[in-house]
Amino acid sequence: MTKEEVFNKIKDIIVDQLDVDADKVKENTNFKNDLDLDSLDIFEVIDKIEDLYDIEIDTDEGMETVGELVDYVLKQKTDK
Q1: 44-61 pLDDT, tens per residue?
Q2: Given 19, 21, 23, 38, which residue is catalytic?
Q3: Residue 59: burial class (beta carbons within 10 Å; 0-12, 13-18, 19+)
Q4: 12 is catalytic
């Protein structure tokens, strides 16, 4: 699994789940500042990602951007 594959999956989840314009979702996109997501929106995305990749995401990690979430998922999958 490549970083690009994980990014594209997460991007699809954000776009589908939260009706966000796909052009707005980049690796450096900030969940709150750029996408105006609240904690419930972010929780919905994290829940879908946890189910998809069969991992636990620690929300205390302070991930603020899509890229940070992608890196976290990759690390969780390689640590297993």
Answers
A1: 999 999 999 999 998 777
A2: 38
A3: exposed
A4: no
